[in-house]
Request: fold
Amino acid sequence: MYRLASELDVRDPDHLLDQLPPGYRIVYSIFEWEQSRAGEGFTTGLHNSGQTLVHVAAASYAEVGMSEEAMALRHMLEQHAKTPLDYDRTEAAYNAVDNPYKDDWDRIPHLVRHLCENADRYFYVEA
Reply:
């Protein structure tokens, strides 16, 4: 799924994300954010991803039933809006939310499992 997200040639993600089928929007927004965050942390990951993409990733997490992760990302974005240059506070805001998906090893497998189990819902798979 990381590969799919990186293979989508998205020149105008703000416009395209609204037009993608749900599964592709979910995969693109979440995995672009996760890849940026994993490689660069909150400090440059948020800056490089852009707030719009992180908002879409939060909505995508909510859509797949991971509301705690969505809430943590929204809380992080609210803090970032207040203190845009204080990434320690931004990361602390994310960590302040009670979230069983904080750890990558919990978040990503749960997400992939959910998407695979619900592929017909998100990707319009024909049986």
Summary: The mean pLDDT is 85. Residues 2-123 form one domain. The chain is about 75% helix and 0% strand. The radius of gyration is 14 Å.
